[in-house]
Amino acid sequence: MKIICIGQNYVDHIKELSNKKSGSPLIFMKPDSSLISKNHPFIIPSFSDNIHHEVELIVKINRLGKHIDEKFSHKYYDEIGLGIDFTARDLQTDLRAKGHPWEKSKAFDNSCLVGGFLKKSQLNDVNNIDFELKKNNKVVQKGNSEKMIWKIDYLISYVSKYFTLKIGDLIFTGTPSGVGKVDSGDNLEGSISGERLFSLNIK
After folding, report:
1. Sign of the Cα pseudo-torsion (120, 122, 139, 11, in order)
2. Partners of 3 in the beta sheet?
3. Burial code of 169-191, b = ≥16 C-beta within 10 A, e = fewer?
């Protein structure tokens, strides 16, 4: 199983981190060792003092595909979920300044939460999905897939040019604005259209 992540896919998030909009989707990967085990907390690693939450819609691939035409992308998924791409922002800032890859800041052990999934049939329009993240019962991130720079079907087609997509692969589609630091004792709760899909404790 591959975890394929799309960076900088919401204009407001690009602005909040003072980044520049890319001319094509920014792709990075997380290994399966980044997955947080079911019902386990996220434990802040010792190597970072600034871990950020980034809530994202997730697409679960349901068939083998390569060089997928965008008009056929909808056939390659029937579930959309919600998760968190945890980011060691202090490490990422340092790595970027040096022109180095991001892996240490993005792909470390337990840096990836995959919550629940909804059937695509439960959603009226994949390009109009409301989702949000609460930290300690306060909404800190709120997004809608309509505001994606690159929409889900385009991303599937684009990614498949470079990587063969296999059953069970996950595509994290990018985070909206509102990313921020997590601290020990925090609770994160994510939902799509008001339906809670995960609750996670920070330790």
Report:
1. positive
2. 30, 170
3. bbbbbbbbbbbeebeeebebbbb
pLDDT tens, residue by residue, 111-140: 999 999 999 999 989 999 999 999 999 999
At the fourth CATH level, which superfamily is domain 3-201?
Fumarylacetoacetase-like, C-terminal domain (3.90.850.10)
- pLDDT tens, residue by residue, 143-157: 999 999 999 999 999
Closest CA to 177 of 89, 55, 80, 86: 55
Identify the bridge partners of residue 181 per DSSP, sorted by sequence position. Answer: 52
Angle at 6 between CA 189 and CA 190, to 5 degrees: 10
Residues 6+ apart with CB under 8 A from 37: none
